[in-house]
Design brief:
With 295 residues, the chain is mainly α. Helices cover 76% and strands 0% of the residues. The chain has helices spanning 2-8, 13-34, 38-52, 56-65, 68-92, 96-109, 132-156, 160-176, 185-188, 194-223, 228-250, 259-270, 275-294. The longest helix has 30 residues, at 194-223. The two termini are 34 Å apart.
Length: 295
């Protein structure tokens, strides 16, 4: 399926997989370079990816299709293949205890089914402009609590790198809000041109991401004034990432973003100079997609 999707997108499978591995390696090296707690965060990231494979609805569907023995083999293979790159990198970094723990937990999670509840409905400051931040914030509010907690720890122990990680976490969660395309109605209802619609969505994204990142950014600017330019640089990268993800989402609308587009997006976020080519490409495709709905 991966090879077919890459070929349909006009990318040679070997090249696409190579770029994906290069982006993963670059992210891993950067994480371990900047954070002393990187091995544990790395393991949590791997387990969060694995946990998505344990969603109840998905596993119920698989069990209806496959025999019990085949289902178990498939789930073990899925979880194993997902964590292999993480385990290999942890071994290369000589963090063997964490690598062994991850290698043990991943197959055990294949036996667990996780029922992801619907988002809890509580008031948010985002209700006027659907849909990404309303749904996304309610579903992932706990991650912002974690980010703000890490910011407090960064201030107490004067760890600027941990504070920057908190800022990256806030923007990463905001980027995840754009994974799921909204119902066509939420696009059709606007009396805007495709360009006007994209500009409206970008302003909304920048405003709401600014609200969520403000506590972290203010803490970094107040308690780490010597690193003001670095903080501003990461804020700028966060907003550029929002622009890129937003355009990537509508470049395939109303379908969900496919894997080749995801690889291009990851490449741009990992290597910002590539955004000079990726952003115009996504913008052109987004305008074409939206013309059918907005004229």
């Amino acid at each position: 399926m991966l090879k077919r999707q890459l070929s349909d997108f006009g990318i040679r499978p070997a090249l696409g997989i190579g770029l994906l591995l290069a982006g993963f390696s670059g992210f891993s090296f950067y994480l371990f370079l900047k954070l002393t707690v990187a091995p544990w965060l790395y393991m949590l990231l791997a387990l969060s990816l694995v946990s998505r494979l344990s969603e109840t609805g998905r596993n119920t569907f698989l069990r209806l299709i496959f025999k019990r023995a085949d289902y178990v083999r498939i789930r073990l293979a899925e979880n194993g293949l997902t964590v292999v790159p993480f385990v290999v990198f942890l071994c290369c970094k000589s963090v063997l205890p964490v690598a062994v723990l991850l290698a043990v937990l991943a197959p055990l999670l294949s036996l667990v089914r996780i029922n992801i509840p619907a988002a809890v409905a509580f008031p948010t400051p985002f209700y006027k402009r659907p849909f990404e931040f309303i749904v996304g914030f309610r579903a992932r509010a706990g991650l912002f609590v974690v980010a703000y907690g890490l910011t407090a720890i960064a201030v107490i122990y004067q760890n600027f790198n941990l504070g920057i990680f908190s800022l990256i976490l806030v923007f990463t969660v905001c980027l995840s809000f754009y994974n799921q395309p909204e119902d066509v109605f939420y696009v059709w209802m606007y009396r805007l041109t495709p360009n006007g619609f994209l500009w409206h969505k970008l302003k909304t994204a920048m405003l709401y991401a600014g609200i969520l990142s403000l506590p972290v950014a203010l803490a970094l600017l107040v308690y780490f004034p010597a690193h003001m330019l670095i903080t501003a640089g990461f804020l700028l990268l966060g907003y550029v990432g929002l622009l890129t993800v937003l355009l990537a989402k509508y470049s395939s609308y109303p379908q969900q973003m496919n894997l080749p587009q995801g690889i291009l997006l990851a490449l741009g976020l990992m290597m910002p100079p590539f955004l000079l080519a990726i952003v115009p490409f996504f913008y052109t495709q987004s305008v074409k997609r939206l013309k059918a709905l907005l004229g």
